[in-house]
Amino acid sequence: MAKKVALLVGVSNYHQQGLSALPSATRDAREMKRVLQHPDIGGFAETDITLLLNPTKDTMADAIYNLFANRSSEDLVLFYFSGHGAKDDNGNLYIAAPATRVSQNKRVLPQSAINASFIKDQMT
């Protein structure tokens, strides 16, 4: 039987210089949850929505892995992220967690963020 599942991540608070606060990011994630739960719009069960606000990189990575693990092609799977994205020196895209660090030239330090290729790999 097909299942609807969603992971909603909002990161408003960044601890490192170079990534400004985004006060609306956590509000965006909360509002998306509300829309998804609305019976006439999303129809998602509350238990099938994971909401993470300002999570650590590891918590976010685990949740992304769990979102896509053991899904069938019939399932509706939604990953929503509101927060900063940044590129490394090679132009690879990352999503930023609260403790993500960037260099003086505004390039992400890869070990401190989640590579978009990780998300793509989990979806595959």
From TrEMBL:
Origin: domain of life: Bacteria
GO cellular component, one term: cytoplasm
UniProt-listed GO biological process terms: proteolysis
Source organism (scientific name): Brasilonema sennae CENA114
Residue ranges of domain Peptidase C14 caspase in the record: 3-116
Name this polypeptide is given: Caspase family protein
Database matches in InterPro entries: Caspase-like_dom_sf, Metacaspase, Pept_C14_caspase
Signal sequence extent: none
GO molecular function, one term: cysteine-type endopeptidase activity
